[in-house]
Amino acid sequence: MKTESEENNQKIKEIERNIKEFYPEVSKIYEELLKDSRNSNMKVIASIEDDSCSSCSVMVFADIRAKLSADPNSFDTCPNCGAILYVKVEDDSE
């Protein structure tokens, strides 16, 4: 059985692969953030949880939340920490 940390690492790797494959325009931003994040505790990719960035806990502007909710394939970055933001898509099969 995988630990929560192993599952999270697996999800992160999957997200990284998807970014490179489906969003080549984001790859440069992602690589720069990844390089910078090695010197801090900030996440490069962060979900929006309770209207806040899961990396820095700062409230994400309503227009960014609305854009990401309306189109889960879109992306934006946190205005505070710069993490690439995403909205968790609920799986209807559960």
Verbal overview:
The protein is an alpha+beta fold and 94 residues long. The protein has one domain (4-86). It contains three helices and four strands. A four-stranded mixed beta sheet has the order 2-1-4-3, covered by helices on one side. Strand 3 (76-77) and strand 4 (84-86) form a beta hairpin.
Task: Describe the protein's topology.
Layout: H1 4-22, H2 24-37, E1 45-49, E2 52-53, H3 62-70, E3 76-77, E4 84-86
Parallel strand pairs: 1-4
Antiparallel strand pairs: 1-2, 3-4
Offer a quick outline of the entry.
With 94 residues, this protein is α+β, with helices and mostly antiparallel strands. 45% of the residues lie in helices and 13% in strands.
Characteristics:
alpha+beta; 4-stranded mixed sheet; 3 helices; 94 residues; globular
**Secondary structural class:** alpha+beta
Q: Any idea what the shape is?
A: globular
Taking Cα atoms only, what radius of gyration do you get, to the nearest Å?
A: 13 Å
Figure out the total of helices. 3
Number of beta-strand segments: 4
Mean pLDDT: 83
Largest sheet: 4 strands, mixed
Low-pLDDT runs of 5+ residues are none
Separation, N- and C-terminal Cα atoms: 20 Å
Helix percent reads: 40-55%
Strand order of the largest sheet: 2-1-4-3
Domain module tally: 1
